[in-house]
Amino acid sequence: MTQRKVSVWQPFFLGTESSRAAVDAANELERLGYSRIWFSAGFDHKLPPRFRELLDGTERIGVASGIASIWHTSPEDTAAFTADAERAHPGRFLLGLGASHSVLVERDGTDYRRPYSKMVEYLDALDAAGLAPERRVLAALGPRMLELSRDRSAGAHPYFTTAEHTAEARTTIGPDKLLAPEVAVVLETDPEVARATARQYTTGYLALPNYTNNLRRLGWTDEDLAGGGSDRLVDALIPWGTAERVAAGIEKHYQAGADEVAIQVLNGGDDRAFPAEAFRALAGILI
């Protein structure tokens, strides 16, 4: 395992706000001691320039795509982008790749078939373009994709899953590969409010088979998956409560074998606002 890191997963604010606001936020996260910023590459045909803007505007913090879709980007473009970022900022950009979801891929008219084979082909093309496996990770959930992340990349970046999955992923990828799960959290002590906030997030993801199939593999039932998730499932997926209680939930992933946890703070529907106070509170405990 690599040295433990505490990171940030911030899908909307850092990707869609003005460049100045995003860089200011990134600089605060860097000052707080966070190791890396993850955010979505979206569904355009090239990686957005915001990744470079954040790298250029900060000094040390890492930046990672969480994730770049292998159906929307070309391996040649992503390899070139990653190589350019590596030249300018050695060791700071990490290419996170994922097979996305059929509902997102097929809306563009693409036939979503054999995503595992598609990923293998994409990695073959990255190899041919000269991108080292150490500069990429896979958004892996199931056993085959986890094994592929072990064999063909620096490690795995699971999303929307539990500490039990983190333990299984560590067993699959072995002790020496990066394991960096995303963990969404809610800093709210009222159980009803906290779970309602969590369900604003879980409801959409529980409509995606990639995630529900993974949860079923872990033993969760159709009853758990219905209605935005049972209380038991919501509590397992999303630590909530005081900053100390949330930090304890995140610690479960480290204890299960994570090297790095990418924390996503849920804002109760205001996902385009940067939750600075929450990240400050969590940094004071975890870093």
UniProtKB/TrEMBL annotation:
InterPro entries: Bact_Lucif_Oxidored, Lucif-like_OxRdatse_MSMEG_4141, Luciferase-like_dom, Luciferase-like_sf. It comes from the Bacteria. GO terms for molecular function: oxidoreductase activity, acting on paired donors, with incorporation or reduction of molecular oxygen. Residues 18-128 form the Luciferase-like domain. Pfam families: Bac_luciferase (PF00296). One of its GO terms (cellular component) is cytosol. SUPFAM superfamilies: Bacterial luciferase-like. This is LLM class F420-dependent oxidoreductase. It comes from Actinoplanes siamensis. The lineage of its organism: Bacteria, Bacillati, Actinomycetota, Actinomycetes, Micromonosporales.
